[in-house]
Amino acid sequence: MPNSQLALPYFLPYFVYVACAALPLAHAPSYGLRLLLTGAALLYSWRFYQGIRGPRSPLGSVVAGFGAGLLGTALWVLLLIEQPGEPWDDTAFLLRLFAAGLFVPVFEEMALRGFVLRYLVQMGGAPGGVHAVAPGAWTWRAVLVSSVAFALGHRLHEMAAAVAYGLLMALLWIVRRDLLGCIVAHATTNVTLAFYVRATGAWGLW
Known about the structure:
There is one protein chain. This protein has one domain. Helices cover 71% and strands 0% of the residues. It has seven helices and no strands. Helix 1 packs antiparallel against helix 2, helix 1 runs antiparallel to helix 4 and helix 2 runs parallel beside helix 4. The longest helix is centred in the middle third of the chain and has 34 residues. It starts with a helix and ends in a 6-residue tail after the last helix.
């Protein structure tokens, strides 16, 4: 399938989530709406996705992803420029936790590593759409540009942490040769960071 047809399913959930986030809603209604509409977009897009599983053991990718996710949490805490933050109530916290743990890792990894990184590799000579790119294939341009693109979806004070995190996810794609490890790592980071913030009161990291 050509990239012109793949771009919509790979980016639709991402843009639906961002559009919902832009609405002037309180935390709980905002995340409730994001769960509903982004979930629907992911259901539509899921049949188009390829590369989640690769030639290596899925269990190995889950284990590697979990370890990389913990490392990613440490990177985020160390590199992010913490801003003042207010505590979230229980309902809003749980809704954001579900969104960050279940949906965000899937649509961000499919958009940034699944499409952008593979598209840039393809520009280097691989024929066909992004699905024709070999699992784990990479170029320096693909790794760097996809990591910066990932960072651009975050706030200014998160940029350094987000670039480092994008590089970590690209490395995981290269080593495990699938997107499963990236998705598991991203989910692990988001969930552990949420509980770290709640336990320490460092709401500015969130």
